[in-house]
Design goal:
This protein is an alpha/beta fold and 277 residues long. The protein has a single domain, classed as Metallo-beta-lactamase, Chain A, CATH 3.60.15.10. Helix content is 23%, strand content 23%. The strands form two sheets. Strands 6-5-4-3-2-1-14 form a seven-stranded mixed beta sheet. The radius of gyration is 18 Å and the shape is globular.
């Protein structure tokens, strides 16, 4: 399996729009790994996790062939992860689209997309936009061709049914754990017998709020989660562990994060990073 980080930022991106803070100023000067688009990931060439406001730019910059995408898994309905307007252009009369795409997410995801259809168009059914809705219920694995996804309850966005994912494809297991604080007990129970080749964890709060554990994680809690995964046997010293989803409000540039995480054998992700699993 190939895993590509298309974006590694939280909602505001880095540098944040209109922001005058020191870290956004430095990111603008440094460019490179300090420029972060909103979080999204590509598995092989046919599966996306989240599809936010930077999707157009990401598809061009990182050579994502959207015509090969079979499915999009959505973690939650916040606009930096689900930007419905970009999926509206699939509707008849706006683009030549002949292939269906599966939109996979919670009941809130599917309702959010349908509400957008109703607000901006006269669409009353998913098929007009060549969309096949697939409900993901926490704790219930779902298999689509060679991919199996186990949705896990996230510690994030109360009332929005946020999820993160354990994904299996071609014998490889990946835990995609952004946009969650310290995992809920139910999620720990669901993954206790799984072994992961790769894990991504949420580092939104950075070095400024190292002990943040609700909604998003700070750097100390990222290490705490990684250590518990080790203790449970869910990962071992061959597993690849990455931290992603950073906010400029965490006061942490790439080099700052690397100085903290690399001695702890955790890799700091950046936009465009491609991992072979």
């Amino acid at each position: 399996m190939q895993f590509k980080f298309l974006g590694t930022a939280a909602a505001e991106a880095v540098p944040a729009l209109f922001c005058e803070c020191e870290y956004c100023r430095k990111a603008t000067i440094n460019k490179g790994k300090d420029i972060r688009r909103r979080a999204s990931y590509l598995l092989d060439d046919d599966t996306l996790v989240d599809f936010g406001p930077d999707a157009f730019h990401q598809s061009l910059l990182f050579d994502v062939d959207l015509l090969k995408i079979k499915r999009i898994l959505f973690t939650h309905c916040h606009e930096d992860h689900l930007n419905p307007i970009e999926l509206l252009w699939r509707r008849r009369g706006f683009s030549k689209v002949t292939k269906d795409i599966k939109i996979m997410g919670s009941n809130v995801i599917l309702a959010t997309l349908m509400q957008a259809y109703a607000k901006y168009t006269t669409i009353t059914s998913f098929d007009i936009a060549h969309v096949i809705p697939v409900m993901l219920n926490a704790g219930e694995p779902l298999t689509d061709e060679e991919l199996t996804v186990l949705p896990l309850p996230a510690n994030h966005a109360p009332g929005k049914n946020a999820q993160f994912f354990a994904i299996t494809k071609n014998g490889k297991n990946v835990l995609v754990g952004n946009d969650t604080g310290y995992f809920p007990d139910e999620s720990w129970d669901l993954i206790k017998d799984m072994k992961f080749d790769m894990v991504t964890l949420d580092g939104t709060m950075g070095l400024l709020y190292p002990d943040s554990r609700y909604g998003h994680m700070g750097v100390n809690v990222v290490v705490e989660v990684r250590d518990r995964l080790l203790e449970m046997g869910c990962i071992d010293d061959k597993s690849k562990v990455f931290v992603t989803h950073f906010s400029h409000n965490g006061n942490s540039l790439q080099e700052d994060l690397e100085a903290f995480f690399l001695p702890k054998n955790i890799t700091v992700a950046y936009d465009g990073l491609t991992v072979e699993i």
